[in-house]
Design a protein that fits this description.
Elements (H helix, E strand, L loop, with lengths): L8 E4 L15 E3 L14 E3 L8 E3 L3 E4 L5 E5 L5 E4 L8 E4 L4 E5 L5 E4 L12 E4 L8 E4 L3 E2 L4 E2 L2 E6 L5 E7 L4 E7 L8 E6 L6 E5 L5 E3 L1 H4 L12 E8 L8 E7 L2 E2 L2 E2 L4 E5 L8 E5 L9 E7 L8 E6 L13 E5 L5 E3 L15 E4 L8 E4 L2 E5 L5 E8 L13 E6 L2 E6 L14 E6 L4 E7 L5 E8 L2 E6 L3
């Protein structure tokens, strides 16, 4: 199905046609104080809460974006959250995974708590939204962690949305000690699958959706245990999906905390390459691909920070000083192509940050590049100089959930195929903006886009203009 694009161009900003090499002239600027922010919390969640076209931030409070010039705090949410429009009323709601509480958006002005069904005791480190049963309403997958001292493994929870009126507890199983939870339709069959990062050298899990919200665990079958020989699993804290090699299939980065001790070198973080349809959507473990060793890696997040068309990786750390007095720092890794990643953060002004689990991307000032919330700060991107396109997708609220979570967009430009997906949960408890961002480098003219909607329907869009934001709604 083709669609004219002109009606959906919200605004267009023209940048110089030239594009930088990998030697950047500028870096990231700490804009926290000038924007009036006082960020806290374990994680960061980006979402446009008041529908004004400027993405807002939940991190130690609800911060409303004042057209990219400043932020205004309008309230607090207990703990850390992920965002989606659960009742399909056009306003994005918040679920606090750390407090296990749901808050309904009151037209961007306030949030009112909504009662959930009685839940079993649970300590969580992350959750994600997704329409797992395909009824047009987003559900919740909540990871269950641990009480280490008491030897308790808490259950993971699946909460099924009942037409926006409430939720029912579908599943409660104590199996492994989960940290990050993130969803993606990795096999492109029109339903969302869930990847769970487990700690304590336990295997990570891949819950493959069989349709109607019925899952089968297939991590070993698909090759995503994210471990190494002699270990059942790693100390995984968070994982992130991204098409790292621009082949149209969503790959996976699994982040592992890894000790080196008398028992041997524990499994390090690794890239897992999706082999696509011809490979049965199995994954090939490529190892570290340039992610240098640090003991206390924590939460990863994926975004094209330099607008060159390749998905880059930002990766936090748990400790400032790890074993043997070694300093650990969050790292920005530039994607050099062909699964080669290079540490570039220090030269760009974010190389000596403290330990944090907070890491999420969004273009808060609408200038066409991704900015970073991490370590209690907001960093304005002054690196990127290339072209870009952004997609803001929405469902009809009946067949496709209003937030379009689970949708994928592929664009073809200069013989390069790039894929992004709408996700509501990444790393350990963080959330990137629901708006999809593509860096385009030196490309000129127009590109072709294809949308894979969460129900499996495909839609092609011709002549997409570079340096534009497009708002697209699902049509049955």
């Amino acid at each position: 199905m083709r669609r004219s694009i002109l009606a959906f161009v919200i605004f267009s900003l023209v940048f110089p046609a030239g594009f930088h090499s990998k030697a950047w002239a500028n870096g990231f600027k700490d804009a926290t104080n000038e924007l009036g922010l006082k960020l806290g919390g374990r994680a960061a969640c980006w979402a446009d809460l008041n529908n004004d076209g400027w993405v807002d931030l939940c991190a130690g409070g609800i911060w409303i974006n004042q057209k990219g010039k400043s932020f205004k705090k309008i309230g607090d949410i207990p703990g850390a959250c992920v965002a989606a429009d659960y009742d399909n009323d056009g306003w994005v709601d918040l679920f606090s995974w750390s407090a296990l509480r749901l808050f309904r958006n009151q037209k961007g002005k306030a949030f009112v708590e909504v009662k959930l069904p009685k839940l079993p005791p649970c300590v969580s480190r992350g959750a994600c939204w997704g329409d797992f049963d395909g009824d047009g309403y987003v559900d919740l997958f909540v990871g269950g962690y641990e009480n280490w001292r008491k030897g308790i493994t808490y259950p993971f929870l699946i909460l099924i949305n009942e037409n926006g009126k409430g939720f029912r507890l579908e599943t409660s199983i104590a199996r492994f000690r989960a940290r990050g939870v993130t969803a993606c339709d990795f096999d492109q069959d029109g339903d969302l699958d869930v990847y769970v990062s487990n700690y304590r050298l336990q295997p990570n899990l891949l819950w493959v959706n069989q349709g109607k919200g019925k899952f089968k665990e297939r991590a070993r079958t698909h090759g995503v245990l994210a471990t190494s020989k002699g270990f059942a699993g790693g100390h995984s804290i968070g994982a992130a999906w991204g098409d790292f090699n621009n082949d149209g299939a969503m790959d996976l980065f699994a982040g592992n905390f890894a000790h080196r001790d008398a028992r041997g070198n524990q499994p390090q973080s690794r890239f897992l390459m999706n082999l696509g349809k011809t490979g049965g959507f199995r994954f090939k473990d490529l190892g570290t691909c340039g992610i240098h060793y640090q003991e206390s890696y924590a939460s990863p997040t994926v975004g094209d920070f330099d607008n060159d068309g390749d998905a880059d990786l930002y990766f936090t750390t748990v400790y400032g000083t790890a074993s043997f007095g070694r300093k650990n720092y969050p790292v920005l890794f530039s994607n050099e192509g062909k699964f080669v990643f290079k540490n570039v953060g220090e030269g760009l002004g974010i190389g000596k940050l403290g330990p944090t689990y907070q890491a999420a991307w969004a273009d808060f000032d609408n200038d066409g590049d991704l900015d970073l919330a991490s370590a209690g700060r907001l960093f304005r991107n002054e690196v990127a100089k290339g072209g870009w396109i952004k997609f803001q997708l929405s469902g009809d609220g009946q067949t496709v959930n209003r937030s379009a979570i689970g949708a994928q967009v592929r664009i073809t430009v200069d013989s390069k195929l790039m894929t992004r997906h709408v996700e509501a949960g990444t790393g350990q408890g963080n959330q990137n903006d629901l708006t999809l961002h593509f860096g385009l480098g030196k490309s000129k003219g127009t590109v072709q886009a294809e949308i894979l909607w969460p129900n499996g329907k495909q839609e092609r869009i011709d002549s997409v203009k570079i340096n534009s934001v497009l708002r697209l709604s699902f049509r049955p």
